[in-house]
Design a protein that fits this description.
1 helix, 11 strands, 111 residues, four-stranded antiparallel sheet, globular, mainly beta, seven-stranded mixed sheet, single chain, 50% strand
């Protein structure tokens, strides 16, 4: 059974940092482009960042320079380090690989 399990969300003040983690089933982790998406209330789901099996990365313009996606091949895990968070980063963040999605983790940026 393929699983993607996110963790690390929470409430943070503007300017703060959070790191999200996603543990991915091995077959998906080793063969698929892995991505973080987010969906704010009332908005469409949008791509945040991607990482290839070879470690190549891609970012949405809105997060470039603030967010970093990475992968730990020994742990079948990808991460999203989020720095200098803004209220507009508030959303449910989803991990995605191929046709599979995680359940999402809430990130709230508020004072």
């Amino acid at each position: 059974q393929v699983q993607l399990v996110e963790s690390g969300g929470g409430l943070v003040q503007p300017g703060g940092s959070l790191r999200l983690s996603c543990v991915v089933s091995e077959t998906v982790f080793n063969n698929k482009l892995l991505s973080w998406y987010r969906q704010a209330l009332g908005n469409q789901r949008e791509l945040v960042a991607q990482i290839s099996t070879g470690g190549r990365t891609n970012y949405a313009d809105s997060v470039k320079g603030r967010f970093t996606i990475s992968r730990d091949n020994a742990k079948n895990t990808i991460y999203l380090q989020m720095n200098t968070l803004k209220p507009e980063d508030t959303a449910v963040y989803y991990c995605q690989g191929g046709e599979y999605w995680g359940q999402g983790t809430q990130v709230t940026v508020s004072s």
